[in-house]
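Review session, final week

We close the course with one last complete record, chosen because it touches almost every idea we covered. It is Regulatory protein YycH domain-containing protein, a protein from Paenibacillus xylanilyticus with 426 residues. Go through it on your own first, then we will talk.
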Amino acid sequence: MKERIKSLVLASLVAASLVQSYFLIYRLPGGGDSIVTSETNYVKTENMGQERDIEELIFPDQMMIHLGEDKHTVFYPGNTFYQLIYSRLQGRTFDDFQRRTVQSVNWDQIRKDNPGIELSFKEGIPVALLQRVMRLGTDSLFQGETINRISIYTAKNETKAHALFFSAKGDVVYEATQADLTVQDVQQHVDFGTNWTPYTLMDGGYYIPAEALDAVEADVPTGQFTVEQMQRSLFFDPSMTRNIREKDGSEIYTDSKRSLQVKQDQRWISYTDPAAPPAGQIDAAKDALSAVDFVNQHGGWKGRSRMMLDTADNKTQLQFQQYYGSFPIMDSVQFRFGTISMEMQQETVSSYERSLEYLNEGAETKKSVKLPGGDKLKALIQKVAGESRQVVDVYPAYRPSTIEGGLKLIPVWVIRFSNGEETTVS
């Protein structure tokens, strides 16, 4: 009997030892190759910023309201009418898509002649992600597309509304022949823009206000994540990292596999993981979901951001641009702020860049300013574009500059050219 009890106790001790060893190896930092599995699942680290769902990061950069007779206005994110119209459209169903070439209809003429709403997703959103914020039916051709513009309009003497989804490739457009939007629904949305600032549709397909645009200049206090916080967030065992100081004053922390470069003068970090899986077939939607999950667990979000996505060289490149009020905050080579940049391979982060500095909204001081419009803005655009550069977009944004204890956010017009370059005027 005693021998049986001893055997049971010994077996229990062995089992407990095995369980303890499992948790030490597979659950704690420093446990060998199994850490890759934990990292892929992006284990939660120190709580720094807020978490976000991907649905909060997908929204149009501009909403154009077409009033007919070549009259237009533009709503920007955060505007009350923008939020109202967008939330209503998100509750509608669009299905049974028919494909046609873009050249089959004069779309510019439709924008000028017919009342309607146009949503701009500048860089394009894969349908698989757009389905997370809008009720879109499934279709084998449509499912594989990336959409950069949605146009909903009514035509004279027709009893139903048209809903068009434009491919970011620029060659085809899909019409939802089944859409639970009536002509009256569209007209009600259009009426919200009747007494708003009038905009002019320019030859390049962009819009400018016919008069000066009301804007806000703000002095916003800032906080800052510490390098130690980022180390704890990005390395499973920060004590195992070593520090390398570069000639340009930046510092690199590495665990021999991953590296974290800190540029103190710009308060900017760049994290790279060369051990990401080799390039393969791209699934941009899955990459985007993994990217959002990674940010949620490694730094989090400060303020509201909009997702921009591109695929190139068998990788998914993402940018999350921060907004203040209705306008995005510019990120430039001279002043890095406001953008989280990521590169994904097979749903795994290969690079991650962001500012250590963040806005403490709620304690800022503001003043009303005017951004030029009409002929004055046209002259400014002509001056910077000259005869050789084609303008494809003009939009308002904030240019940040350093002040004591924070940032000054200065409203500007951003002019984008066909080659992707941008410049500002104000």
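Two points worth writing down before the exam:
The chain has a mean pLDDT of 87.
The chain has three domains: 60-201, 214-218+362-425, 219-359.
Good luck, everyone.
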